[in-house]
Amino acid sequence: MTFELPELPYAKDALEPYISENTMEFHYGKHHKAYVDNLNNLVKDTEFENMSLEDIIKATVGRPEFTGIFNNAAQAWNHAFFWNSMVPDGGQEPKGELKDRIERDFGSYDKFKEDFKNAAVSQFGSGWAWLVEGKDGKLQVIKTSNADTPLAHGLTPIVTCDVWEHAYYLDYQNRRADFVSAFLDHLVKF
Ligand code: MN
Fold first, then answer.
1. pTM of full prediction above 0.90
2. What's the 134 CA to ligand 1 centre distance in angstroms?
């Protein structure tokens, strides 16, 4: 099996002005593509060759001899999930059951946004901020470093924001907080 770069769910310029077409050209077309290409090279002729991305992530997490495979598989998965965490004209409050669960577990949607922004801004170095469902069924905001993904730890991802510098530096330079605010106010899709 060969992994393929998934289609973007919108045009490369669809998230402007919050994420530029230039950023998408590099982030999707170069960074995400490189993770997929690297993974294909790394799993060729190995026990992982015919496994799903999700199974590779779960089989390689925490195993130092497979760090390269884990990193590229997790980054391939995380990026596909990130593109699907956004939509043009996003940033609307969730409705229905998810709205009720956010209010139950965070107190309010505004408190969820505050917690998510804090996690995204305080992640030291490269990584990701996530809304996940825990093993107890409660919603939580977490952050992960580098390629790490909640999928590898028995958590169910709901939404993510990439806070690697490559996600925002062309548009926001060092202003990660402004990027995260734009994500929450204008892009996030539940
Ligand atoms: Mn990225």
1. yes
2. 24
